[in-house]
Design goal:
Blueprint: H1 3-18, H2 22-33, H3 39-45, H4 73-100, E1 104-106, E2 109-111, H5 114-143, H6 150-161, E3 177-180, E4 184-187, H7 190-209, H8 211-219, H9 222-229, H10 233-258, H11 262-268, H12 270-283, H13 292-317, H14 320-324, H15 329-366
Antiparallel strand pairs: 1-2, 3-4
Membrane topology: Multi-pass membrane protein
Keywords: Ion channel, Ion transport, Membrane, Transmembrane, Transmembrane helix, Transport
GO biological process, one term: monoatomic ion transmembrane transport
Amino acid sequence: MNQQQKDRKASLLAAIDRCENPYVLAQVATLLKREGMLQPIGELATAFPMLLQLESTRDLSLQTRLKSENVTRLSRYQNLTAAPLFLISLLMLLITAAILNNFSVDEAGVHLNPFLSKLAQVYGVIWLLYLVDLLLVLYLSFRFKTKIAGAAFIPKLLSLVFPPLGMSLRHYTKPDKTWLPVYHWSLCNEGLLQHLKEKFSVPMIVVALLILPVLIIEWQFYEEVEAFLKTDLSFVLDMVQGFIWLAFALEFMLLVSITNDKFGYVKKNWIDLLIIVLPFISFVRTLRIFKVARLTHLARGYKLRALVMKARQGLIVTSFFFRLLTIKPDFQLKKLKKKLDQNQAERERIEEELVRFARWIKQKNQR
């Protein structure tokens, strides 16, 4: 043990002596019980110091309104078009929501009312702007020899397929930044992700709960409510469901664009993706082999389950879920303790793999 390690040990012992947190002391005691078994990892750490870097790498800082470089023509162009492109993409998402949740299907195919047909035409015209925008970006990149980061270019291409993705584009040369209303250029990290989750949580709870009266009316009181309102109730209900879809799609696209672990986010938030994808599935003409009524009820059933689960997720984010269950604190404590135990077991399995690897390295060096 060198002098630096001795000083670190002395500092750690002094910190433990001052510590009065029983939870922290219990963790230290548990780790010390495994000291003998973990000895090979300690020896391996002399050759691989990265094993001693145990501090969290999570960046929880909130860095917004960052200055964007205007050095290149491409950066200047993006600074000028970031806000308009976001607003246009939001409009495209609104049109998508209206079309997906208000079309009708019969044996002849998919039908749109005259208003939605006009919206579809507007959608097509605006799509040309995305094509022109991409061509200009490519021209500026090649003309002034400015390399576009892959993390920014791939979503740019995907926005041609689904224009609303234009809301979630990264900076062309600094892909760790994204443009958002109010926040402007912001650093894409866990801090921004958690901040936006908290901002979305309460509104999304309200949006999720909107599905309950919609489904109750559709399944039980449709004729009574339509007679009372004296209007085309199906159009009203479809617009409400379109608004719900719009809210979930907006939240999902923004949050998944900010996180750097997109696959992990989608895997963890598969309910969000299910809510967004279901209307697209019902829009595909190949599904005409199913009866329309059966397909509609199936989709609504999934929406109900998905939206209720989404509401619960929002409650957890705002910690409101814990306050609702204060009458049974033992239940919540046991549930969270179980998660801690699972994480500890996973950590121990990883450490055991490191021990086996360290022994293999040692045997290899002795040959």
